[in-house]
Amino acid sequence: MVRVVLVDDESLVRAGLAALVGAEPDMEVVGEAEDGAAVPDLVARCAPDVVLMDVRMPRLDGIEATRALMRAPAPPKVIVVTTFDSDEYVYGALRAGAQGFVLKRSRPEDILAAVRVVHAGESLLFPSAIRALARAHAGADGPRVRAVAALSGRESDVLVLMARGLSNSEISGELFLGVETVKTHVSAILAKLGVRDRTQAVIAAYDSGLVGVHRG
Fold it and tell me: Domain named Response regulatory: which ranges (predicted)?
C-alpha cells in the first residue's frame, strides 16, 4: 500500500486528489496540509511514502518544505504538483530533492502513474521542461560538475539517457546492456556525484553541460 500525503492550499484541489488516490486499491491518503509549514510535523506523524506537493503556498512554499523534508534520515518521495511546466519554482524544488513533477491539468491516470513510478524508485522527468528550467536557472555546482566530468564513458552514456527520461529497461535496450548492468551503472553515478536519486543526477548533468539545455 502506497501511503500518500497531499499538500495544497486549495481545498478543492486536495479534495480532488484525495478522491482520486483514495479510490485506488494500492494507495491511501494518510494526511493533508494546506501549507508547507505544516508538512514536516505531518510527515513525521503519518510516515507517507509519497508527498504530492504544491509549490505555491502562502506561508512556506513547496521548495522550502521539500528541503526541510530532505533533512530527515529517511525522507518520503516528493512529487511537485504545479500549474505550468515552465514554473520557475519547479526547478528549485527538484534541486531541493523532489523526485519529479506533474501538472495539475494532467489526466487522472497520469497522476496515479506518477505516484507509482516514484514510489518504485524511478524519477518522473519531462526532459523538455527540465531543459527550459535549467536554461532559466543556469548555475553550476563546482564539485558536482567536476564529478560529472570524472564519470566513465559508459556512465556518461547512461546519464545522458537518464536525462532523456528513460527508465533502466529502456536504457538497457538503447545501450544493449543487461538491466542489472544498467542498475549498477546508475548506482555508481549516484555515488560518484554524491546525490540521492536520479533527478539530482540529471540536474547535475544539465549543470555540467553534459546534457545541453538548448537541445530540442
Answer: 3-119
Question: 0.70 exceeded by the pTM?
Answer: yes
Query: In this structure, are 106 and 30 located in the same domain?
Result: yes
Q: How many Å separate Cα 155 from the centre of its chain? A: 21
Q: Which among 93, 1, 119 is positioned nearest to 39, based on CA atoms?
A: 93
b vs e for 7-41, b when ≥16 Cβ sit within 10 Å of the residue's Cβ? bbbeeeebebbeebbeeeeebebbbbbbbbbbbbe
The contacts of residue 159 (CB under 8 Å, 6+ apart) are: 148, 151, 189, 201, 202, 205, 210, 211
145/120 Cα distance (integer angstroms):
28
CB–CB of 101/57 below 8 Å?
A: no
Location of C-alpha cell 486528489: 17
CA atoms within 13 A on the CB side of 42: 24
What is the domain-level CATH number for residue 98? 3.40.50.2300
For residue range 17-32, list pLDDT tens digits in order.
999 999 999 999 999 9
The verdict on 66 and 166 lying in the same domain is no
